[in-house]
Design a protein that fits this description.
227 residues, alpha+beta, Immunoglobulin-like, 3 domains, four-stranded antiparallel sheet, 6 helices, disordered N terminus
Length: 227
């Protein structure tokens, strides 16, 4: 190291290198020391040597992770203590989220967005002689069967009666077809599996079949299928 520099810093530049490495150099001397440090390779070597020397002492200290509260205390010292929010303010975001979630679920449920498309079934009911023709349409989403008579052919004082032919071969009355169009609300059990249903039409007395079974020959029949 150049001897001309030894007189500039109390204790010599070597002592200054040690102070600088430890971070103990007074603030008003750091700028001047660093200016010499840039221009003096020997001084740079002294700083590096002292830094390596002091590092040997830290190698003897076992590594330990400080507890979490140490960081909170440091942040409190630097940024100031953080005021703890009341319990209701801490819980409020969760309550709002829960209310919004329930509202969205209700909207989706009420609108039927998650329900699969329900099929629409239709079929033509026609007699063997072609004198009577009816169009039937079943909307599975509403459970309503619509029957429209497209031709006349009912005697005075008589009425057409609509039947569903069950899988066991027994006919079950669904409605009396008094007008040109009749709407029939099916029971949920029947509507659940109405695809391929066979419909029959008989001509009965004004009040309907007296014995709960078709009392005369069938006037028309047909099957409901997906268009």
């Amino acid at each position: 190291m150049k001897t001309t520099l030894d007189r500039d810093v109390p204790g010599g530049w070597e002592a200054g290198a040690a102070e600088y490495s430890l971070g103990l150099m007074p603030k008003d001397e750091i700028a001047g020391f660093e200016a010499h440090l840039v221009a003096e390779p020997d001084l740079q070597q002294d700083v590096a040597a002292w830094a390596e020397y002091f590092a040997c002492f830290t190698d003897l200290i076992p590594e330990e992770t400080p507890p979490p509260q140490v960081l909170r205390r440091i942040e409190g010292k630097v940024f100031g203590a953080v005021e703890k929010a009341p319990v209701w303010q801490q819980v409020l975001p969760y309550l709002i989220g829960a209310v919004v979630g329930v509202a969205l679920a209700w909207i989706v449920f009420a609108s039927g967005l998650l329900e699969p498309d329900r099929p629409v079934l239709s079929g033509t009911l026609i007699g063997a002689d072609g004198a009577l023709t009816l169009e039937a349409r079943f909307d599975a989403s509403t459970g309503v069967l619509t029957v429209v008579r497209t031709s006349d052919g009912v005697a005075d004082g008589r009425v057409l009666e609509l039947w569903h032919l069950r899988d066991d071969g027994e006919p079950v009355s669904l409605a009396l077809l008094r007008g040109q169009e009749t709407l029939v609300a099916l029971s949920p059990d029947l509507a659940r599996d109405f695809s391929g249903a066979v419909l029959l039409v008989s001509e009965e007395p004004a009040g309907g079949a007296p014995q709960g079974q078709p009392s005369s020959g069938l006037r028309a029949e047909g099957r409901l299928t997906t268009p």
